[in-house]
Amino acid sequence: MSKRREVKERLETLDEIDGIMNAMKNLALLETRKLAIFLSTQRRAVSSIEAAAQDFLSFYPPKTTPPTALQHAWIMIGSERGFCGDFNESLVQALNANQPQGNILLLAIGNKLETKCHEDTRITAFIEGHSVVEEVPLTLLRLTEVLNKLPHVGSVSAIYFDDETDEIRQRQLLPLTTPTKKPTNSHPPQLNLQPAEFLSQLTDQYLYAVLHEVFYSAFMVENRMRQAHMDKAIRRLEKDESELRLRYNRLRQEEITEEIEIIMLSAEALSDADN
Question: What is the dihedral angle through the alpha carbons of 116, 117, 119, 125, rounded to the nearest 10 degrees?
């Protein structure tokens, strides 16, 4: 009886875990549906800003600063929550495989990524991440506060999972690249601001837009991997449940058999006593 009770309690626990895992899987699916819309809109916005920047820079190339005098910020976008497979481990492996050279300032996004590389002395700052897509602007606000405190930052790059390839990508976000081809337009664009001021505001606008894109892209892959991880865990859990149910039924059958034997022995004893 005690063994069957233990198996029954174990089955109830597995049922609860199964419900939690299915809920997490459904939440990840919901996030991917929302992100598909956000990413499409954000990529169009980034493309429009890049086209405007290329037109502007064709006629007003920026002044260059010696690269040795500047530092380079690398943003590594991990996850705030777990249960997403080897998402964070792959980022750490990619970082170790491509050792950054020069004055590199590494910024790690996400609590789970922090646990993977909290002893890494190359990390300049750890920044809290987001659990749902609506929290991405809060993550960007925290990131902006850290970037504003960094001195002499000459470029900003991102290391993240690209949702179009499901592979890790290193992408330079700033500075805006100067076109190497001749401008398509014969006359420079008409500006209401001084070129330097216009470039400053355009850079801020582009960084804001492109950071949204890369964060949405990384979060899309994170939720895809979470779905796959949950699917695998649920299948394994269902297999364990099936085996436990067979064991539970077998123990129940043994108990019924023992009860029948006891009843039969009792009946024989009573019959012998009557005789």
Answer: -130
What φ, ψ does residue 37 adopt, rounded to 5°? -75, -45
pLDDT tens digits for 65-94? Answer: 555 567 899 999 999 999 999 999 999 999
For 30-60, what is each residue's pLDDT tens digit? 999 999 999 999 999 999 999 999 999 988 8
Q: From CA 259, how far away is CA 254, in angstroms rounded?
A: 9
Q: Tens digit of pLDDT for each residue in 182-213?
A: 777 778 888 899 999 999 999 999 999 999 99
CA 39 to CA 117: how far, in whole Å?
29
Reading phi first (left if > 0) and then psi (alpha if -120 to 50, else beta), residue 79 is in beta
Alpha carbons 201 and 271: distance in angstroms, whole number? 102
Whether 174 contacts 155, CB under 8 Å:
yes
The domain 25-181+191-228 is classified under which CATH number: 3.40.1380.10, 3.90.180.10, 3.40.50.2000, 3.80.10.10? 3.40.1380.10
* Ranges of each domain in the chain: 25-181+191-228
